[in-house]
Specification:
Oligomer: heterodimer
Number of helices of chain A: 0
Number of helices of chain B: 0
Strand content of chain A: over 45%
Largest sheet of chain A: 5 strands, mixed
Radius of gyration of chain B: 13 Å
Distance between the termini of chain A: 39 Å
Helix content of chain A: under 10%
Largest sheet of chain B: 7 strands, mixed
Number of strands of chain B: 11
Structural class of chain A: mainly beta
Shape of chain A: globular
Strand content of chain B: over 45%
Order of helices and strands of chain B: EEEEEEEEEEE
Order of helices and strands of chain A: EEEEEEEEEEE
Radius of gyration of chain A: 13 Å
Chain lengths: 112, 114
């Protein structure tokens, strides 16, 4: 299964867009890209997922490159509450189902 | 939707004692996962159930760890005997069937073994 590479840390000014990159160059054609985030002392929280089209929901936008080897999670107007570790995951299959395997993620700090 | 409920929130115990962590998944979700998180190793999958049946327990570190899911609304993770290196935050997550559905995590149990 495809592995992902993310920068260990990033920072962003409050009110600005936060663009979090993820490299998944070995992704296969039927693998989805998922994003989760983990705020301190809480469990990870699902944000968004996609296959090849760009996706948007109330939390964020996901931009996947045409070759699907990388993606970017965009928080359009970051707030202090968006400070968290962000995980980019591609699906791992076991017994026909999808089991997320988490790497180290990107620690995003949003500053005033 | 009450979310995934884990108890206790914090557990402090002495080495050698038995520890039982509990999880109530979201109603209607039929897959359940136990993860462990430490600074050294990050978030690791321990075991995964589907329809109350253990599917993949390859992440369970050793025989001291066991997990059960007697019904669709309850699961336990037991450590017997506990050791200081078991200190970690243990998360339970559930998912509606259909492999691409996202996981929903509880807020974890912080275990400290002295």
């Amino acid at each position: 299964d495809a592995k992902t590479t993310q920068p260990p840390s990033m920072d962003c000014a409050e009110g600005r867009a936060a663009n979090l990159p993820c490299n998944h160059s070995t992704i296969s054609g039927n693998e989805y890209v998922y994003w989760y985030r983990q705020i301190h002392s809480q469990g990870p929280q699902y944000i968004i997922h996609g296959l090849k089209n760009n996706e948007t929901n109330e939390m964020a936008s996901l931009i996947i490159t045409e070759d699907r080897k990388s993606s970017t999670l965009i928080l359009p107007h970051a707030t202090l509450r968006d400070t968290a570790v962000y995980y980019c995951i591609v699906r791992v299959a076991s017994g026909g189902s999808y089991i997320p395997t988490f790497g180290r993620g990107t620690s995003l700090i949003v500053h005033p | 939707d009450a979310g995934v409920i884990q108890s206790p929130r914090h557990e402090v115990t002495e080495m050698g004692q038995e520890v039982t962590l509990r999880c109530k998944p979201i109603s209607g979700h039929n897959s359940l996962f136990w993860y462990r998180q430490t600074m050294m190793r990050g978030l690791e999958l321990l075991i995964y159930f589907n329809n109350n049946v253990p599917i993949d327990d390859s992440g369970m570190p050793e025989d001291r760890f066991s997990a059960k899911m007697p019904n669709a609304s309850f699961s336990t993770l037991k450590i017997q005997p506990s050791e200081p290196r078991d200190s970690a935050v243990y998360f339970c997550a559930s998912r509606r069937d259909g492999g691409r559905s996202p996981l929903h995590f509880g807020n974890g149990t912080r275990l400290t073994v002295t």
